[in-house]
Every structure is written in structure tokens, then in C-alpha cells.
Amino acid sequence: MTLLLGIETSCDETSAAIVEDGVRIHSNVVASQIELHAKYGGVFPEMASREHVLKIVPVIERALHDAQVAWPDVDAIAVTYGPGLAGSLLVGVNTAKGLALAKSLPLIGINHLEGHIYASWLMPDAMDSSPEFPLLCLIVSGGHSELILMRAHGEYEWLGATRDDAAGEAFDKVARLLGLGYPGGPAIQKAAEQGDAGSLKLPRAWLAGTYDFSFSGLKTAVLRIVTADGRRQTADESRSPISVMPSVADIAASFQESVVDVLVEKTRMAAEQFGVKQVLIGGGVAANKTLREQMRARLPVPVLIPPIALCTDNAAVIASAGYFHFANGERSGWDLDVVPGLRLVSN
Ligand code: KG4
Ligand code: ZN
After folding, report:
1. Is 189 in the pocket of ligand 1 (CB under 6 A)?
2. Which of 92, 238, 247, 332 is most exposed by smallest CB count within 10 Å?
3. How far is the CA of 313 from the centre of ligand 1 (A)?
4. For ligand 1, is residue 284 a contact (CB within 6 Å)?
């Protein structure tokens, strides 16, 4: 049995976890800063790193305590070193280095996107049967929208990414336009439940011949509708029968439908072209109910969909990715630095 301590501080969650053999979670502690940043309508980088400084030690202590694990039981430390906010990443990387040095443990730097992929190794079924290669990964979060072909552990082929806003960023910006608050994804999902997704014909950027995405035109279309309305409506405003303007619920539902339609269709095309055995989704936007339903309904192969707590940022997925690198004999040196723009490519 190999136990890894995972540490994740790339954005606004301070997290530590203990994971066995990359597949079994013993603890996964997440201290969220959502309330702190909500009043700014997005993550305030300096506040995020200072909050990580305050939380990191208690969060790690709690992860060891919850797992009933003592330091001599830990075999290695895996930590996110990019992509993300430099000041936030530094807290996790420096803490991991200090602990690895003090406890004489191997250190393994992990790409945050790889963490989102490995959420699918932590699902109950994965303990009996691991995800099968070749595998197509759709990673959609606040900072990323990427389609990645995974042929084996550590073997990634990059197929496409967003050319402007990430999917989660589009949800956050449109939620702000609609006066729905932060984070935007869950707020839009909730508002959309009362709306009609077919009520507005919003644009879809297909970018034919590529696996890239673009959501800025969609965001501008929503901006036009909102400014034409001349005011910001609130979420609980009901649709007025005499108003010709669409309701917030109808805009939210149509926007969500447009994003999900493009994500699902491009994933379906890539799954067919590359003849993958399975598709997995990860990242905060993978928590979206409509995306989860349409992925299951429209993809020609099984779709691995992690529980919501493993889609958003957490350290268990970092420890899982770390295990497979550790098992492969990989180690990071003491010169491990943060790489805020780190990409996930091996070709
Ligand atoms: O992966 P994550 O926790 O952090 C990053 O690495 O960015 O993703 C956060 C993003 C935010 O943009 C948030 O609005 C979005 O995920 N999100 C959602 C939902 N829950 C979170 N987007 C759509 N629907 C949701 N239910
Ligand atoms: Zn993330």
C-alpha cells in the first residue's frame, strides 16, 4: 500500500488529501475561499495567496487526522505547481518542499489539469476497473476548456482549447451580466431550471475543422440582450406577460444550452475520430447538471463523470495523479518552481 499526501493551492481552494494507491481516498479536506472572493465578483489573487498561508498547515493537519495517518505512514508528497495563480501556487509548493525535506519524503510536482483528469480514477467503480485507454478528456473549469487525448498514464495529446474565455469564465461573466452573483456556474444552472432553453437562439461557435472552443461571441450576444433590456434583472423576477424582453431564467437556460451543445458535440466528434474507448469529464464546469446529462445521452462510448466534489478543485485528485508518476519512478528536485502557464502536453 502506498499513501500519498496531496496538496492543492492553485486558485482559491486550500486542500490536502491522503490517497491510497491513487484510487482510494482516506481524507480530502478543502477550505474554500468562495465567500471571501464573492464580494469582488471573482478571485482576488493577493487575498487568495494570503488565505492559503493562513489555512495550509491546519488543512494538512486535518487531512492526516481524518485519515488517521501519521507521518511515518506517508510515502510521498504530490503538489500542484501549475497552471494557476503564482502567489497561490507558491504557498503549496513551498509547504510541500519544506515538509518533504523535514520528513525525508519524495516530492512530485503535478499539473493541475492532470489532477482534474485523475478524478476519474477515484470513483468507486475505478477501484475494480480503471478507466480504459485511449481515453478522451474534456477539462472545463474557470481557467480551461481543453480536449485531450490520453493514450496511457502520462501520455497526452492536446486536441484543442478555448481561444478566448474558458467555459467556467463564460458562466461567471454571463452570471455577472445577469446580476446572478459569483461563482456563476451554479447560479446560472439554478436560474436556468425555471427557464426555457429553446426560447432564445444564441450563437454557437463551431470553429469547424478544429477542436478549439470560443465563448466570447456568446457572451457578447447575452450582453446585447441585457443592454437592450436597459436594466439588470434579478434572479427571482418572474417573466412579465407584457414584457417583450426575455427573462433572466430564459437567458440563463439558453446560454447554458449553447455552451453545453458545443462542448458535447465537439467531444462526440473527437471521440469518433480517435476511436476512444471512454470519455471523461473534469473541472468545475463538469459539475453542471445539463452537461452531465447530455454527455451521457449523446456520446457513443461510456462517459466517466466524477462526483461534484471531485470535479471542483481538491487535493485528492492531485494525490491520485501523483501516485501514477511516483509508481513510474518520477521525482521532482528541490528546484521545483511554480509555472503559472503550465500546459499539459507530451507530444
Ligand atoms: O475547477 P474549478 O473548481 O477551478 C478552476 O480550476 O478554475 O472550476 C471553477 C469554475 C467556475 O468558473 C464555476 O463557475 C464553474 O467552475 N462551475 C460551474 C458549475 N459549478 C462550478 N459551471 C457550470 N455549472 C456548474 N454547476
Ligand atoms: Zn481546477
Report:
1. yes
2. 238
3. 9
4. yes
The answer for residues whose C-beta is within 8 angstroms of residue 61's C-beta and 6 or more apart is none
Instruction: Name the residue at shortest CA distance from atom 14 of ligand 1.
Output: 185
DSSP annotation of 301: S
Distance CA(310)–CA(305), nearest Å, equals 10
In contact, 339 and 114? CB cutoff 8 Å: no
In three-state secondary structure terms, 236 is coil
Tens of pLDDT, residue by residue over 202-211, are 999 999 999 9
Give rounded-to-5 percent helix, strand, coil for the chain: 45, 20, 35
143 lines ligand 1 (CB under 6 A): yes
The tens digit of pLDDT for each residue in 140-196 reads: 999 899 999 999 999 999 999 999 999 999 999 999 999 998 889 999 999 999 999
* pTM (predicted TM-score): 0.92
Pocket test for ligand 1, best of 141, 215, 262, 289 (most atoms within 8 A of CB): 141
Tell me, what DSSP letter sits at residue 283? S
Considering every ligand atom shown, identify the ligand nearest to the alpha carbon of residue 283 and give its number: 1
